[in-house]
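tool_call: predict_structure(chain=1)
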Amino acid sequence: MRDLHPVLGQKSWGRRKAFYLFTAAFTAIAGLGCVLAVGFGVVSGTPLDVYFSWAIFFILWLPFIALVDNPGEKPRTRVERWSEFGFVWLLVSGVAQTFWELPWFWLDMSGLVHHITEQDRWLWTWWAYGGADTRYITSNPTIAGVEFMAGFSGPVELYGFWLYSTSKTLQQKVAACWIALIIGVGLTYQTGVFFVAEWHVGWANIQQGATGFWLKFVGLNLPWLVAPVFALPAALYELAHWYRVQGFEKGYETGYEKGRDMALKQQRIAA
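tool_result:
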């Protein structure tokens, strides 16, 4: 019966929450430290870019922790686990799109990231990836179009996560699920374009050997193809759940009103 009546919208707790917070804090502090250290010339931009990419790789796969129950926790239903995964992924994806893709689009439009190298210290954040996927430092029109759409999706994703996390009404949860579903479908489609466009030219724009291909190009983009396998059905299942709840509440209110009207009518007749 729990599959029909899942407990959704609950905040994470226990080891899952601790793992989320620790990983997010470590990645934010380490990432900012790398950016500042390179920017001020304290360390060289390479091979730090490889370590930086590994750190980002792990944070992108963080949402999969949502699929694991805490020790001693009552086993959650598939819908409950997938729901938590979907909104953790919405947050992770939203941060990436808002703070990397969106700034890159404006930097590309201005020409500031064209043909940068590891010596461009304050642009190192974008070279760390663009040194491998050179489409990001050569003003590739396909990438500009993809990142325009993806970048502006980021703030919408963050809004959807905030709306769901702070929602006090059923309508807010439904709206957040629709945001997760619509944005998720769009980003999945765009990721397919991203990979196929480069495959079509025989990976001609990918440099830095196996590290550039497998870690940076594949590893840092593959989550946007894998995560939707769980996140999109989660949004659909959750929407179905909230609409059932909405229908039940509406039916209860209608039945209550009919019962009240009938009682009043009987009182008038008796009087």
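agent: The longest helix spans residues 228-270. Proceeding to next step.
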